[in-house]
Design goal:
Layout: E1 3-8, H1 16-29, E2 34-39, H2 41-44, H3 54-67, E3 76-79, H4 85-94, H5 99-103, H6 106-112, H7 121-135, E4 141-143, H8 149-166, E5 175-177, H9 212-220, H10 240-252, H11 257-264, H12 269-295, H13 298-327
Parallel strand pairs: 1-2, 2-3, 4-5
Helix pairs in contact: 3-12, 3-13, 4-7, 4-13, 7-8, 9-12, 10-11, 10-12
The structure holds tryptophanyl-5'AMP (TYM).
The site of tryptophanyl-5'AMP (TYM) has 24 residues, from strand 1, helix 1 and helix 7.
Length: 334
């Protein structure tokens, strides 16, 4: 049986990249698979988080998952630190993963920046914890945006090395699910850099909590080029901003790039921007409204997270027990 696992960090506002690269696909998968979705607070603290803000951010992201359409009754939704099996398996994986593997991780290089000596050890070991998140449930499929592909390849390397080292067929080889036409949503101000929470320009991203006026203003200011829109996706080569906006449009209405190019062939950006604004507002404004309704009831969100953590622990515990046996770690007798 296939099992889905994925995670999102509570490090600030969820944006359109998170929605189109991850959350929207998670909602589409929920009735076909057993799904476990995690707010990864232990990953968040690999970079400084204000302890006064982290609980609210964790609840807000939980609200985002539910507002994006995840049914909290049929999916397991919880925060990572509430299930200690993640951190326990991550330690074992730290002893399986090789320094050379982690040295190649581009996300570490980007996040650590020039001052690598000052990055936390946790940021360096981030991918081991991510492998533990997935494999502690023996999940088989992981829906993510394009930027997480390298981490999932590392997860497969860790699973394979663990199986080889201990002579077992224990962990499955996970498959990334990188779905839709917006697997890498780019900044609205620069089509060559990824839309991200850490971009200092608010105009570079649309947040899931932005109201209709803000969405419209950001799209009006989005960078474009002087050419009319092409008839086919091939005409988008060398036009990163146009490709990004058409990809966003396609993903928001579940169409292909071919369909969207056909629809707007020869149009100027002014006409296209009116259409994408109308579409983005019609999809995102109700989600933003639902998020504020849900965040006003933290007790409800805490109940969802507590129930999710209990269900997740039940799945993780026997897997971790088996890992301890395989590795030869004694547990106190019950
Ligand atoms: P995070 O919080 O950075 O992002 C959450 C999800 O959003 C996707 N995403 C994007 N997709 C398209 N375009 C973008 N501009 C964009 N920005 C973000 C990410 O690919 C991700 O799917 N390491 C993960 C969290 C994690 C995880 C896991 C994921 C921890 N453990 C286990 C899968 C399985 C992350 O950085 O998420």
């Amino acid at each position: 049986m296939s099992r889905i696992f994925s995670g999102v960090q509570p490090t600030g506002d969820l944006h359109l990249g998170n929605y189109l690269g991850a959350l929207r696909n998670w909602a589409a998968l929920q009735n076909r698979y057993e799904c476990i979705y995690c707010v990864v607070d232990l990953h968040a603290i690999t970079q400084w988080q204000d302890p006064k803000e982290l609980p609210a951010n964790t609840r807000e992201v939980t609200a985002g998952l539910i507002a994006a359409g995840l049914d909290s009754e049929t999916n397991i939704i919880f925060n990572q630190s509430a299930v200690p099996a993640h951190a326990e398996l991550a330690w074992i994986f730290n002893c399986v993963a090789r320094l050379g593997w982690l040295n190649r991780m581009t996300q570490f290089k980007e996040k650590a920046g020039k001052n690598r000596e000052n990055a936390s050890v946790g940021l360096y070991a981030y991918p081991s914890l991510m492998a533990a998140d997935i494999l502690v449930y023996k999940a088989t499929h992981v829906p993510v945006g394009e930027d997480q592909k390298q981490h999932l390849e590392l997860t497969r390397d860790i699973a394979q090395k663990f199986n080889n080292d201990f002579g077992v067929e224990f962990f499955p080889m996970v498959e990334p699910l990188i779905l839709g036409e917006a697997t890498r949503v780019m900044s609205l101000r620069d089509g060559s850099s990824k839309m991200s929470k850490s971009d200092p320009s608010e105009n570079s991203r649309i947040n899931m909590t932005d109201d209709a006026d803000t969405i419209a203003r950001k799209l009006r200011r989005a960078k474009t080029d002087p050419e009319p829109l092409p008839e086919t996706p091939a005409g988008l080569d060398g036009r990163p901003e146009a490709r990004n906006l058409l990809g966003i449009y396609a993903a928001l209405c579940d169409k292909t790039m071919e369909d969207v190019c056909r629809e707007f062939a020869g149009a100027q950006f002014s006409r296209f921007k009116d259409s994408i604004t109308e579409l983005a507002v019609s999809v995102l404004a109700p989600i933003g409204g639902e998020m504020s309704r849900l965040t006003a009831d933290p007790a409800y969100l805490d109940r969802v997270l507590a129930r999710g953590a209990e269900q997740a622990s039940e799945i993780a515990k026997p897997v971790l027990d088996d890992v301890y046996d395989i590795v030869g770690l004694l547990r106190p007798a019950p």
